[in-house]
Amino acid sequence: MFKLIKKFASGTLIIAMAFVFGGCANNPPNPPNEQSQQQIEAQNKEKAVMDNYNALLQTTDVTIPEIIKFIDGNITVVSKPNASAMIIGLEKVQNDKLNKTQEQFDNEAVQKVVMKGYKVGLDDGYINSIQNQQVKDLLLATKNSGYKIETAEGMYYPVIDYSFYKKYRSNVTSDIAAFIDIMAVESDKTPIKDAALVISWEEILKRAQAQERFIKEYSSSAKIEDMRCQLKRYAVFAMYGGNNTPLFSYDTKQMNHEAKETYLETAFDANNGSFSKAMIGYLEVLQKNDYKLTSEVQEYRNKVSQEIH
User: Which of 257, 256, 289, 283 lies closest to 270, judged by CA?
Assistant: First the structure.
């Protein structure tokens, strides 16, 4: 090897080296020390951002808009895992403060004002049209805290608006981006109101299968348990329906015709997860019982609905 190197240590080797590296002549790499220094500075900056963020979350009287403002100003300078941690932290605070926010809506005067002009969405036009300053401030704070207004049984109340999180999708890890997508669909159109399903049987299965894919693809995600809870909920919708939209007629015990057609047309693969496996078995039991609610069907769905994970 030494002889070979010596043989080509002449102009031939020099020319070859110049040819190979010539294309990089206009873009010389940073000196190792400079590059390391830049990396260290970036790491220190990111650590400082996350330390400040965690300190902010621990502040007793911190408001959600303050947290959102911090995230908006710093999410682009941190890694995707840290950006995801920021979003998870924000969601936790929203959940922690949700009951207190809902209590502010549990007021007859507030309900009357909101009921009078509310249609869909907390847009600026609607909020500015409110004459009652107290209610106007409440609605503005609700919107600025990443909540939206939902209604059921004639009452108006706030819920987390997951579509609000879409602006962060490109900054977070793939599992958190997928979580945002799934939950945005959920908050944009709730599946059940007044004990009645308000989405189609097809949509129920579509959402459940999306949740199932998340569980399969992101088994180590920080949001895995939340998604499992969602899937259990949708398994109940799929196998039972709602009190006011049951899967089986209360009188004839016959399966809802639209649901039957939808379920038979849907492709379920047991390899996708426990929901698909349960639905395959459910359809087999239903076929055996002429698609009527019998004790065997009841026993099966009671059993497998508890095994969804």
Answer: 283
CB 269 within 8 A of CB 212: no
Give per-residue pLDDT as tens, 144-167. 999 999 988 889 999 999 999 999
Q: Name residues whose C-beta falls within 8 Å of residue 41's C-beta, 6 or more positions apart in sequence.
A: none
- The domains of the chain are located at 191-309
Element (H, E) at 301: helix 295-304
Token pair 């951002």 is at which residue? 49
- Tens digits of residue pLDDT in 25-56: 455 555 556 668 888 888 899 999 999 999 99
- Contact status, residue 182 vs residue 223, Cβ threshold 8 Å: no
Kind and range of the H or E run holding 246? strand 245-246
Q: Which of 206, 195, 224, 175 is nearest to 275 (CA)?
A: 206
49 CB-near residues (< 8 Å, 6+ apart): 74, 77, 78, 82
pLDDT of residue 207: 98
Give the pLDDT confidence of 224-279 residue by residue, as tens digits.
999 999 999 999 999 999 999 999 999 999 999 999 999 999 999 999 999 999 99
What are the φ and ψ backbone dihedral angles of 156, each rounded to 5 degrees? -110, 135
What's the rounded Cα separation, in Å, for the pair 109 and 41?
54
HSE-CB for 34 with a 13 A CA cutoff: 4
The residues facing 147 across adjacent strands are 160
In the three-class reduction of DSSP (H, G, I as helix; E, B as strand; rest coil), residue 240 is classed as helix
| pTM (2 d.p.) | 0.85
Give the span between the Cα atoms of 60 and 44, in whole angstroms.
Answer: 26
Strands 241-242 and 155-160: unpaired
- Rounded percentage of the chain residues whose pLDDT exceeds 90: 77
Decide: helix, strand or coil at residue 307.
coil
